[in-house]
Amino acid sequence: MGEAIGQILSYGVAVALSAFPIIGVVLMLATPRARTNGPALLLGWSLGLALVGTIVLLVSGGVGPSDQGQPADWVSALDLTLGVLLLWVAVKEWRGGGGGGGGGGGAPPPPRDGKEVPLPKWMRTVDSFTPVKALALGTAMSALNPKNLLLSIAAASAIARTDTSAGAQAVALAVYVVLGALGPGTPVVLYFALRERSKHILDDLKLWMEQHNTAIMAVICLLFAAKLVGNAVSDLSS
């Protein structure tokens, strides 16, 4: 179990740093339905991560490493594909063309001179969201957004590489989901813990994420692209 959990720690942290669920939940927490919509978006985000990971593990059919300790060829091929796709996403992000909002409307362009930028349409209409819509949005942002989807597939693939039981893999996936939920979960905790005093903190967090989203995601995608491609080339050439 320890090996499987060790494989997904970095992926969980990477997904937790995704800007748009954090920005989205901060916006939800400024609406009249904050007490229900904020947690609903967080729940949807967690469900999306769990759904993608579960599908990948089920498709893998419990295929672990070979007798020689090498992962199955399909796992290495998947890592290579994911690495190339993440490299492509990193280039798009670095060039300012990332479209990673998920769930309706892409990412806003990078802000200029520290100013706020126009937000996607769904972010401008959060006042009208119901808890069900917030739940669906959170699920879409984690399960359908290209960057998060690729990282979740890569995390589940890393779990599948290990020679562990189905129960241990499920625990590792649960740890990944918990880590991935820390990003959007932090504003929710601050809101309920500090109430009105949290507004200034959440506004600053939202602005910071808007300003640095492109750089954060470009670096994350580049690092994981190098890791996945390196693993795949090493395994396939062994």
Question: In a nutshell, what does this entry contain?
Answer:
With 238 residues, this protein is an all-alpha fold. It has helices at residues 2-16, 19-28, 34-60, 73-94, 121-124, 131-143, 146-161, 166-180, 182-194, 198-236.
What does this structure look like?
By secondary structure, this protein is an all-alpha fold. It has one domain (2-65, 73-236). The protein contains ten helices and no strands. Helix 2 runs parallel beside helix 9 (182-194). The longest helix is centred in the C-terminal third of the chain and has 39 residues, at 198-236.
- What is the number of independent domains? 1
Order of helices and strands: HHHHHHHHHH
**For the residues shown, what is the average pLDDT?**
80
Q: Care to count the β-strands?
A: 0
Helix content: over 70%
> What general form does the structure show?
globular
How much beta, percentage-wise?
under 5%
Number of helices: 10
Biggest sheet: strands, sense, closure? none
Question: Can you tag this structure with a few keywords?
Answer:
73% helix, 238 residues, mainly alpha
Question: What is the element layout, followed by pairings?
Answer:
Blueprint: H1 2-16, H2 19-28, H3 34-60, H4 73-94, H5 121-124, H6 131-143, H7 146-161, H8 166-180, H9 182-194, H10 198-236
